[in-house]
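Field reference: sequence -> structure
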Amino acid sequence: MRSILLEEMTWPMVEEAIHKGYKTVIVPVGSIEQHGHHLPLGTDSYLGDCLGRSLAERLGKTLVAPTIRPGCSVHHLAFPGTISISTDTLIRVIKEVCTSLDRHGFETIILVPSHGGNFAPVATATQDIAPKLKANLLALTDLQGLITKMKEGAAELGIPVEAVGGHAGAGETSFVMAYKPELVQEDAMKPGYIGPFTSKYVRKGFKAVTPTGVLGDPRPASKEAGKRIIELVTEMYVEAVRRELGD
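Structure field:
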């Protein structure tokens, strides 16, 4: 296989891959939204690209569809550049993407949300469309598990848990350092809100909680921590897929 990414393949290549047993396809679901002063708007989509490819390589005979974007990012709209769509729109897009892939003969479709605001819509879309597909539809929607693995990976490299944060902190910053280091503006890193979880951002928007757009502190981030985070999250997803599919 010259590539496992659908967008880089011709239709005969996809047809041949399916005939050769590449009957699982991963669909990441990302976003275009602010990630502080130092990370690009595409951070969550890059996370989806990376985790989708990493999971596919570990599973074997698996292709990766283009990451769906934008996502549900209404809480970030106070920051310029953020693009948000409604929950209903995202659910509809997910369902139509899955219907298309099902039509081509894929036997397993795996949805991988990589932005917190997409986890609930992905779960809803899965419940709605799964009974209508021939393919098995699996959604990896353990958001708490993702956050836990991010904290574990960072901690192994000496990064304080409170710095990891839930958005553009040392956790996500470490990931981008490992995956697309050229897009990290290290001289622009600024700490954000560090403290107990608050639902204020749901009621008043993200900027009311953190003027910098950051939850946590990106400054202790490292490329090595990012690589470890990718490994740990991928391992978690591999275990979840094999558990769900009984393989």
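Note: The CA atoms of residues 32 and 42 lie 5 Å apart.
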